[in-house]
Amino acid sequence: MNRRDKINIPSHFVLLTLLIFCIALLFFSYATGFSGGPLQTVADYVFKPMQQGLNSAGEALLHSSEDRKSRKELMAENEQLKNKVTELESRLTNVQLKDSELKRLEELYKLDRSYSDYHTTGARIIAKGTSNWFHTFTINKGSKDGIKRNMNVLAGDGLCGVVTTVGANYSVVRSVIADDTNISAMIVSTEDNCIVSGNLERMNESNMIDFSGLSDTGDKVKEGDAVVTSNISSKYLPGILIGYVSSSKADSNQLTKSGTITPVVDFSHLTDVLVITQLKETGASSVSKGVSKE
Protein backbone atom coordinates (compact mmCIF):
# COMPACT_ATOMS: atom_id res chain seq x y z
CA MET A 1 0.00 0.00 0.00
CA ASN A 2 1.44 3.28 -1.10
CA ARG A 3 1.42 6.13 1.35
CA ARG A 4 1.18 9.58 -0.04
CA ASP A 5 3.83 11.93 1.06
CA LYS A 6 2.42 14.83 3.00
CA ILE A 7 3.01 18.22 1.48
CA ASN A 8 4.55 20.55 4.01
CA ILE A 9 4.26 24.23 3.16
CA PRO A 10 6.64 26.46 5.08
CA SER A 11 4.86 28.76 7.52
CA HIS A 12 6.78 31.79 6.42
CA PHE A 13 5.61 31.17 2.84
CA VAL A 14 2.00 31.11 4.01
CA LEU A 15 2.51 34.28 6.01
CA LEU A 16 4.13 36.02 3.04
CA THR A 17 1.24 34.95 0.79
CA LEU A 18 -1.34 36.33 3.19
CA LEU A 19 0.60 39.55 3.55
CA ILE A 20 0.75 40.02 -0.22
CA PHE A 21 -2.96 39.27 -0.45
CA CYS A 22 -3.82 41.85 2.18
CA ILE A 23 -1.68 44.48 0.53
CA ALA A 24 -3.35 43.74 -2.79
CA LEU A 25 -6.78 44.17 -1.22
CA LEU A 26 -5.70 47.47 0.26
CA PHE A 27 -4.49 48.73 -3.10
CA PHE A 28 -7.67 47.49 -4.71
CA SER A 29 -9.82 49.27 -2.20
CA TYR A 30 -7.83 52.47 -2.57
CA ALA A 31 -7.80 52.34 -6.38
CA THR A 32 -11.52 51.60 -6.78
CA GLY A 33 -12.72 53.71 -3.89
CA PHE A 34 -14.56 50.59 -2.70
CA SER A 35 -15.63 50.62 0.91
CA GLY A 36 -18.05 48.82 3.07
CA GLY A 37 -19.22 45.28 2.60
CA PRO A 38 -17.12 42.25 3.35
CA LEU A 39 -13.81 44.00 2.81
CA GLN A 40 -14.68 46.67 5.32
CA THR A 41 -15.66 43.98 7.77
CA VAL A 42 -12.42 42.14 7.17
CA ALA A 43 -10.49 45.37 7.57
CA ASP A 44 -12.33 46.15 10.80
CA TYR A 45 -11.60 42.74 12.28
CA VAL A 46 -8.12 42.24 10.90
CA PHE A 47 -6.32 45.43 10.03
CA LYS A 48 -7.57 47.73 12.75
CA PRO A 49 -6.43 45.44 15.58
CA MET A 50 -3.15 44.98 13.73
CA GLN A 51 -2.82 48.76 13.44
CA GLN A 52 -3.67 49.27 17.08
CA GLY A 53 -1.19 46.57 18.03
CA LEU A 54 1.50 48.18 15.89
CA ASN A 55 0.72 51.58 17.41
CA SER A 56 0.86 50.15 20.92
CA ALA A 57 4.10 48.38 20.14
CA GLY A 58 5.56 51.56 18.70
CA GLU A 59 4.51 53.60 21.70
CA ALA A 60 5.92 50.95 24.06
CA LEU A 61 9.22 50.98 22.19
CA LEU A 62 9.26 54.79 22.28
CA HIS A 63 8.56 54.89 26.03
CA SER A 64 11.08 52.14 26.63
CA SER A 65 13.70 54.07 24.69
CA GLU A 66 12.83 57.24 26.60
CA ASP A 67 12.97 55.35 29.91
CA ARG A 68 16.39 53.93 29.03
CA LYS A 69 17.59 57.37 28.10
CA SER A 70 16.12 58.82 31.27
CA ARG A 71 17.77 56.13 33.42
CA LYS A 72 21.14 56.74 31.78
CA GLU A 73 20.77 60.47 32.37
CA LEU A 74 19.79 59.89 36.00
CA MET A 75 22.71 57.51 36.52
CA ALA A 76 25.12 60.01 35.00
CA GLU A 77 23.66 62.82 37.10
CA ASN A 78 23.84 60.65 40.22
CA GLU A 79 27.50 59.88 39.52
CA GLN A 80 28.20 63.58 39.09
CA LEU A 81 26.45 64.33 42.39
CA LYS A 82 28.48 61.62 44.16
CA ASN A 83 31.69 63.11 42.83
CA LYS A 84 30.54 66.55 43.94
CA VAL A 85 29.71 65.28 47.43
CA THR A 86 33.14 63.62 47.69
CA GLU A 87 34.81 66.83 46.59
CA LEU A 88 32.80 68.91 49.09
CA GLU A 89 33.55 66.45 51.91
CA SER A 90 37.25 66.68 51.09
CA ARG A 91 37.07 70.47 51.11
CA LEU A 92 35.18 70.41 54.42
CA THR A 93 37.81 68.15 55.97
CA ASN A 94 40.58 70.48 54.79
CA VAL A 95 38.72 73.48 56.18
CA GLN A 96 38.22 71.72 59.52
CA LEU A 97 41.91 70.79 59.67
CA LYS A 98 42.94 74.35 58.84
CA ASP A 99 40.47 75.71 61.39
CA SER A 100 41.83 73.35 64.06
CA GLU A 101 45.39 74.32 63.23
CA LEU A 102 44.47 78.01 63.30
CA LYS A 103 42.93 77.60 66.76
CA ARG A 104 46.08 75.86 68.01
CA LEU A 105 48.27 78.62 66.60
CA GLU A 106 46.02 81.25 68.20
CA GLU A 107 46.36 79.47 71.55
CA LEU A 108 50.14 79.34 71.17
CA TYR A 109 50.20 83.03 70.24
CA LYS A 110 48.09 83.85 73.28
CA LEU A 111 50.41 81.76 75.47
CA ASP A 112 53.45 83.47 73.96
CA ARG A 113 51.93 86.86 74.76
CA SER A 114 51.32 85.74 78.35
CA TYR A 115 55.04 85.02 78.73
CA SER A 116 56.36 87.83 76.57
CA ASP A 117 59.38 88.25 78.86
CA TYR A 118 60.73 84.96 77.49
CA HIS A 119 61.86 84.22 73.95
CA THR A 120 60.09 81.16 72.55
CA THR A 121 59.95 78.98 69.45
CA GLY A 122 57.12 76.74 68.35
CA ALA A 123 57.52 72.99 67.90
CA ARG A 124 55.34 70.09 66.78
CA ILE A 125 55.04 66.87 68.79
CA ILE A 126 56.06 63.90 66.64
CA ALA A 127 56.04 61.04 69.18
CA LYS A 128 55.04 60.31 72.77
CA GLY A 129 55.48 57.74 75.53
CA THR A 130 53.55 54.50 75.84
CA SER A 131 50.89 55.69 78.31
CA ASN A 132 47.69 57.54 77.45
CA TRP A 133 49.24 60.73 78.82
CA PHE A 134 51.93 62.91 77.28
CA HIS A 135 54.23 62.31 80.26
CA THR A 136 57.17 62.19 77.84
CA PHE A 137 57.14 63.19 74.18
CA THR A 138 59.38 64.10 71.27
CA ILE A 139 59.30 67.37 69.36
CA ASN A 140 60.54 68.12 65.85
CA LYS A 141 63.25 70.61 66.84
CA GLY A 142 66.75 69.98 68.16
CA SER A 143 70.23 71.40 68.46
CA LYS A 144 70.17 72.68 64.88
CA ASP A 145 67.23 74.87 65.93
CA GLY A 146 68.97 76.10 69.07
CA ILE A 147 67.22 73.75 71.49
CA LYS A 148 69.21 72.83 74.60
CA ARG A 149 68.76 70.49 77.53
CA ASN A 150 66.74 71.93 80.49
CA MET A 151 64.87 74.45 78.36
CA ASN A 152 61.32 74.95 79.63
CA VAL A 153 58.38 73.91 77.48
CA LEU A 154 54.97 75.61 77.48
CA ALA A 155 51.52 74.48 76.34
CA GLY A 156 47.89 75.24 77.18
CA ASP A 157 48.07 78.06 79.75
CA GLY A 158 51.42 77.35 81.30
CA LEU A 159 54.22 74.90 82.10
CA CYS A 160 54.26 71.64 80.16
CA GLY A 161 57.71 70.25 80.98
CA VAL A 162 61.44 70.48 80.41
CA VAL A 163 63.77 69.29 77.64
CA THR A 164 65.78 66.26 78.81
CA THR A 165 67.42 64.95 75.61
CA VAL A 166 68.51 66.85 72.50
CA GLY A 167 69.34 65.48 69.06
CA ALA A 168 70.22 67.33 65.90
CA ASN A 169 66.63 67.47 64.65
CA TYR A 170 64.57 66.38 67.65
CA SER A 171 64.28 66.75 71.42
CA VAL A 172 62.66 64.72 74.19
CA VAL A 173 60.50 66.51 76.77
CA ARG A 174 59.62 65.25 80.25
CA SER A 175 56.30 66.72 81.34
CA VAL A 176 55.28 67.92 84.82
CA ILE A 177 53.04 64.87 85.31
CA ALA A 178 55.87 62.31 84.92
CA ASP A 179 56.60 60.29 88.06
CA ASP A 180 60.21 61.48 88.21
CA THR A 181 59.33 65.18 88.06
CA ASN A 182 59.86 67.38 91.15
CA ILE A 183 59.51 71.14 90.73
CA SER A 184 60.24 73.86 93.25
CA ALA A 185 57.01 75.88 93.16
CA MET A 186 55.19 78.68 94.93
CA ILE A 187 51.60 79.44 95.91
CA VAL A 188 50.89 82.85 94.35
CA SER A 189 48.44 84.07 97.01
CA THR A 190 50.77 83.42 99.97
CA GLU A 191 54.20 83.19 98.30
CA ASP A 192 54.82 79.98 100.26
CA ASN A 193 57.09 77.42 98.62
CA CYS A 194 56.28 73.77 97.98
CA ILE A 195 57.36 70.86 95.80
CA VAL A 196 55.16 69.82 92.87
CA SER A 197 55.55 66.14 91.96
CA GLY A 198 54.29 64.25 88.95
CA ASN A 199 51.99 61.30 89.61
CA LEU A 200 50.69 59.27 86.67
CA GLU A 201 48.58 57.07 88.90
CA ARG A 202 46.76 60.09 90.32
CA MET A 203 46.41 61.53 86.83
CA ASN A 204 44.64 58.35 85.77
CA GLU A 205 42.37 58.52 88.80
CA SER A 206 41.51 62.22 89.03
CA ASN A 207 43.55 64.23 86.49
CA MET A 208 45.70 65.72 89.28
CA ILE A 209 49.30 65.79 90.48
CA ASP A 210 50.76 66.24 93.99
CA PHE A 211 52.33 68.99 96.01
CA SER A 212 54.09 68.64 99.36
CA GLY A 213 56.30 70.48 101.83
CA LEU A 214 54.06 73.56 101.90
CA SER A 215 55.09 75.65 104.91
CA ASP A 216 51.57 76.91 105.59
CA THR A 217 50.58 76.27 109.22
CA GLY A 218 47.27 78.11 108.93
CA ASP A 219 44.45 78.05 106.41
CA LYS A 220 45.83 80.67 104.06
CA VAL A 221 46.08 78.38 101.05
CA LYS A 222 42.67 77.77 99.50
CA GLU A 223 41.25 75.62 96.74
CA GLY A 224 41.76 77.37 93.41
CA ASP A 225 44.98 79.19 94.38
CA ALA A 226 47.45 79.41 91.51
CA VAL A 227 50.74 77.50 91.70
CA VAL A 228 53.75 78.75 89.70
CA THR A 229 57.43 77.89 89.39
CA SER A 230 59.47 79.54 92.11
CA ASN A 231 62.52 81.73 91.77
CA ILE A 232 64.63 79.13 93.61
CA SER A 233 63.99 76.42 91.02
CA SER A 234 67.20 75.12 89.50
CA LYS A 235 65.80 74.38 86.02
CA TYR A 236 62.47 76.12 85.70
CA LEU A 237 62.21 79.83 85.02
CA PRO A 238 60.17 81.72 87.66
CA GLY A 239 56.52 82.65 87.45
CA ILE A 240 55.30 79.98 85.00
CA LEU A 241 51.85 78.72 85.88
CA ILE A 242 51.71 75.01 86.76
CA GLY A 243 48.12 74.61 87.95
CA TYR A 244 45.63 75.31 90.71
CA VAL A 245 45.27 73.87 94.20
CA SER A 246 42.55 71.22 94.30
CA SER A 247 42.92 70.03 97.89
CA SER A 248 45.27 70.35 100.86
CA LYS A 249 45.71 68.77 104.27
CA ALA A 250 48.09 69.03 107.20
CA ASP A 251 50.95 66.56 107.34
CA SER A 252 51.54 64.37 110.37
CA ASN A 253 54.33 66.70 111.55
CA GLN A 254 51.79 69.54 111.83
CA LEU A 255 54.37 71.84 110.24
CA THR A 256 53.70 71.39 106.54
CA LYS A 257 50.84 70.61 104.22
CA SER A 258 50.42 68.46 101.14
CA GLY A 259 47.68 68.08 98.59
CA THR A 260 46.80 67.96 94.92
CA ILE A 261 47.01 70.33 91.97
CA THR A 262 45.02 70.39 88.75
CA PRO A 263 47.49 71.13 85.88
CA VAL A 264 46.63 73.88 83.40
CA VAL A 265 47.82 71.76 80.48
CA ASP A 266 45.64 69.06 78.93
CA PHE A 267 48.16 66.23 78.91
CA SER A 268 45.83 63.90 77.03
CA HIS A 269 45.69 66.15 73.95
CA LEU A 270 48.89 67.84 72.85
CA THR A 271 49.96 68.75 69.34
CA ASP A 272 52.08 71.90 69.47
CA VAL A 273 54.24 73.44 72.19
CA LEU A 274 56.40 76.49 72.82
CA VAL A 275 60.02 76.06 73.88
CA ILE A 276 61.54 78.91 75.91
CA THR A 277 64.94 79.40 74.29
CA GLN A 278 66.74 80.55 77.42
CA LEU A 279 68.01 78.64 80.44
CA LYS A 280 67.80 79.26 84.15
CA GLU A 281 71.09 80.89 85.09
CA THR A 282 71.67 78.84 88.23
CA GLY A 283 72.23 75.18 87.52
CA ALA A 284 72.71 73.90 91.06
CA SER A 285 70.06 71.55 92.36
CA SER A 286 68.99 71.50 95.97
CA VAL A 287 67.86 68.52 98.02
CA SER A 288 65.16 68.61 100.68
CA LYS A 289 63.99 65.54 102.61
CA GLY A 290 65.58 63.23 100.11
CA VAL A 291 63.62 64.72 97.22
CA SER A 292 65.55 66.35 94.39
CA LYS A 293 63.99 69.70 93.54
CA GLU A 294 64.35 71.14 90.08
Q: Structural class, please?
A: alpha+beta
Radius of gyration: 45 Å
Low-confidence stretches: 283-291
Distance between the termini: 132 Å
Order of helices and strands: HHEEEEEEEHEEEEEEE
Write the CATH homologous superfamily of the largest domain: Rod shape-determining protein MreC, domain 1
What is the number of domains? 2
Briefly note the CATH topology name of the largest domain. Thrombin, subunit H
Shape: rod-shaped
CATH class of the largest domain: Mainly Beta
Helix-residue proportion:
25-40%
Q: How many helices? A: 3
What is the averaged pLDDT score?
Answer: 80
Number of strands: 14
Brief write-up:
By secondary structure, this protein is an alpha+beta fold. It is 36% helix and 27% strand. The strands form three sheets. It has a six-stranded antiparallel β-barrel with strand order 1-2-5-4-3-12. A six-stranded antiparallel barrel has the order 6-7-8-11-10-9.
